[in-house]
Amino acid sequence: MAPRRILIFFSDTGGGHRAAANALTEAFHFQFPTRYEINKVDGFKECAPFPLSQIPATYFPLTTYTPQLWGGLFHSSNSRLTLPPSAAMDDALLRRGCARVIRQRKPDLVVSVHPLINRAPCNALKEWNPYIPFATVVTDLFDVHGMWFSAAADLMTVPTQGAFDCGVRWGFPPERMRVVGQPIALQFAPQFNASSAAPFAAQAPNQNANQAAAPNEPPRALRARLGLQPETFTLLLVGGGEGMGPLRAIARALDAAQLPIQLVIIAGRNEALRAQLEHDAWRGPVNVQGFVNNMPDWLRASDIVITKAGPGTIMEALAAGKPLILNGNLPGQEEGNVTFVEQSGVGVLRTTPEAIVKQIRDWLVPDNRAIAQMQANARRVARPDAALEIVKLLDALIH
Questions:
Q1: Whole-structure pTM over 0.70, yes or no?
Q2: Pairing state of beta strands 233-238 and 304-307?
Q3: For domain 205-381, which architecture applies?
């Protein structure tokens, strides 16, 4: 029998939406190896008219250089007064393009992992065939934008109870929502092992990428395999796939403090940052990486993760049982992620290099139990197999 077709709408406005779409694709292939054919579509690039089709290209400079403008757009469109016209405009601009893609792909299920590419494909699908199910997979953690709830989805999965409560406040039917966690790479799931990863692993740009760790490999062994000092307290600095945030300033401050630590810095696709870091003179041990495909290994090898408040990295760190220092957040969009981290007791927000150094120094005081408590909290709130749970729910929509 021919495989059923699933169409996933996402967009490269940040790395998190593509990562969620990839995690779902991976989970479908793992859970149902021959049942589904997965198509992923960047809704802005392929469905929006010019100049909206250029939004993915402008997202990075807009959020990097004018974050307050981004936050203003988020908040100004997220009220009872402004959301309805904002959602209607979004629908009007995207529906025709979404309808064209849906007619071309002829899916048996449509899924959205993006708040702005949600209502339009849902309405386009229901006009084309009202019997085909539509699902929304929310990828913001806590106080999420109302646009997520503007589509008449047959199923909505949310990562936390806070996101569920937000959906109820926006009037989405609670019986159609499920709290299942954030879809992250299957390498974090207990069911997934190194041999399972082979069919899905991308070609790696570094020598470590094809060496997937077993979930129970001790951090000391992982550190040795990754070329790190096995016994040294390890800080992992991450700026997402694009290497965003003040990674260099934080690393320089930590190195200058001469703490008993080693640093791992993941520069992502930011080649300029990587080159700068590799040419810097360091007092202590520093390991610089570019974009990596074995992020679970680096997370499990670390003791503390320092990152911006992107939802994917947060949930990956918690799946690895690691406490967090958030070095910043995108106004509006990531504020709820900070709330989730702080209320869950898995990390803190420290927005300057000096504050981060002080926090690490305090945590390294002998007999301080803060790190152990945060590790326990991380294991408690993590949902490492969320992608597998989500695809089971999506499969049930069809069968």
A1: yes
A2: parallel
A3: 3-Layer(aba) Sandwich (3.40)
